[in-house]
């Protein structure tokens, strides 16, 4: 098991930026999403209801979307168009923003007006083809809803309301299978649907029980031949399921990680799971109350392999991994967004430095 005395950080802080409100107060970072493009954009949802937009390189601010509704509950980039951003609100709407235009108002709003009652949207996702949006709601009297819209027409197609019995906290479309959707709730259930089926009963393929309120879900599948789904619960445990097995492949409890980290710091909470290049392993980002990030390779055994130091001084609320460059973004309650880059080995670093030094001697001035 790794300890703080033996683990050398593989990641170093590349850049960071602090978010402040109009009165210069610190703002919480609630979520971070990254567009799929060569010139990646980053969107962050803030505790004052605004959405701040950046270029990934250098975290240069590009624009911001003012508070548009009550209770900003989620943000997502389009899969096909990196200039399209979606956001959801607890006052019942899901909005679409075209970042190529002035973002004074959304170009599209999705609502359920079927019974003249606001259904607070607690989470949402956009399918792989950017054709359908699913929104999960809070518990309304005795029902919580999964609502489906057709983006092309803004029409509400229908919903499910028998599969969960409490607030829906997460919905996630499969990254390779456009008709597969996972949902999680504070009722402790994770449901997997085939949404092309005509009824909710037929659509429900699998119910997984994690015996605790669901915080986050993540599909870790690397292709369309496998299904790998992780869940982090509000009592700080992580579950991993594979394919159609209702028994978790493995479970990681916070207490297990605390015992394998010999430091004055602690493992206070779990943040996010990422795919791992190693077979039968998952990367898990955890955090401490003081803002330190710990990156683990978890499986049947748990090994910490990286400590992300010096970035945050508050609880980490959001994280994203860019797999191609092995870059990690984190956002926290201290109002900071940090970019962490994976370090090359010392030998490679020395070799690269030597090459750069030689090249600099022969660099030709363009003017």
Shape: globular
Query: How far apart are the first and last residues' alpha carbons, in Å?
Result: 56 Å
Largest sheet composition? 4 strands, antiparallel
> How many individual β-strands?
28
Helical content stands at under 10%
Question: Which structural category do the helix and sheet elements fall into?
Answer: mainly beta
Number of H- or I-type helical stretches? 3
Chain-averaged pLDDT: 87
* Uncertain parts: 1-5, 345-367
Instruction: Report the sheet-strand fraction.
Output: over 45%
Q: Going across the major beta sheet, what is the strand order?
A: 1-28-27-26
Rg to the nearest angstrom?
Answer: 21 Å
Short synopsis of the structure:
The chain has three helices and 28 strands.
Write the topology of this structure.
Blueprint lengths: L10 E8 L10 E6 L6 E6 L4 E5 L4 E6 L6 E6 L6 E6 L3 E6 L9 E4 L9 E6 L5 E6 L8 E5 L4 E6 L7 E6 L6 E6 L3 E6 L5 H4 E6 L4 E6 L8 E6 L3 E6 L7 E4 H6 L9 E7 L6 E6 L5 E6 L3 E7 L7 E7 L4 E6 L3 E7 L3 H16 L6
Antiparallel strand pairs: 1-28, 2-3, 3-4, 4-5, 6-7, 7-8, 8-9, 10-11, 11-12, 12-13, 14-15, 15-16, 16-17, 18-19, 19-20, 20-21, 22-23, 23-24, 24-25, 26-27, 27-28
Description:
- 7% of the residues lie in helices and 46% in strands.
- It contains three helices and 28 strands.
- It has a four-stranded antiparallel sheet, with no helix packed on it.
- A hairpin with a 5-residue loop joins strand 23 and strand 24 (293-298).
- The protein is globular.
- It starts with 10 loop residues before the first strand and ends in a 6-residue tail after the last helix.
């Amino acid at each position: 098991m790794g300890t703080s005395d033996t683990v050398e950080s593989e990641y170093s802080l590349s850049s960071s930026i602090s978010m402040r409100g109009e009165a210069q107060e610190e703002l919480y970072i609630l979520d971070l999403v990254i567009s799929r493009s060569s010139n990646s954009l980053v969107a962050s949802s803030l505790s004052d209801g605004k959405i701040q937009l950046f270029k990934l390189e250098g975290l240069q601010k590009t624009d911001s979307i003012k508070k548009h509704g009550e209770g900003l509950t989620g943000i997502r980039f389009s899969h096909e168009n990196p200039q399209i951003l979606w956001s959801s609100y607890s006052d019942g709407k899901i909005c679409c923003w075209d970042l190529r235009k002035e973002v004074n108002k959304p170009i599209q709003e999705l609502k359920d007006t079927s019974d003249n009652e606001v259904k607070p949207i607690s989470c949402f996702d956009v399918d792989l083809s950017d054709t359908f949006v699913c929104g999960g709601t809070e518990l309304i009297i005795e029902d919580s809803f999964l609502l489906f819209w057709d983006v092309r027409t803004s029409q509400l197609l229908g919903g499910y309301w028998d599969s969960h019995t409490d607030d829906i906290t997460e919905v996630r479309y499969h990254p390779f299978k456009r008709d597969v959707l996972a949902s999680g709730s504070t009722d402790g259930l994770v449901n997997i649907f085939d949404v092309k089926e005509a009824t909710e009963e037929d659509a429900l393929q699998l119910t997984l029980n994690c015996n605790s309120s669901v915080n986050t879900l993540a599909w870790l599948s690397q292709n369309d031949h496998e299904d790998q789904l992780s869940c982090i619960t509000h009592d700080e445990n992580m579950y991993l399921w594979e394919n159609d097995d209702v028994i978790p492949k493995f479970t990681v409890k916070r207490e297990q990680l605390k015992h394998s980290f010999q430091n004055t710091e602690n493992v206070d909470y779990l943040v996010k799971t990422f795919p791992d290049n190693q077979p039968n392993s998952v990367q898990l980002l955890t955090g401490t109350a003081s803002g330190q990030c710990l990156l683990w390779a978890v499986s049947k055994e748990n090994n910490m392999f990286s400590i992300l130091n010096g970035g945050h001084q508050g609880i980490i609320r959001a994280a994203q991994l860019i797999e191609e460059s092995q870059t990690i973004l984190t956002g926290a309650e201290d109002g900071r967004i940090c970019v962490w880059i994976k370090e090359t080995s010392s030998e490679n670093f020395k070799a690269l430095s030597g090459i750069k030094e030689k090249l600099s001697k022969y660099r030709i001035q363009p003017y």
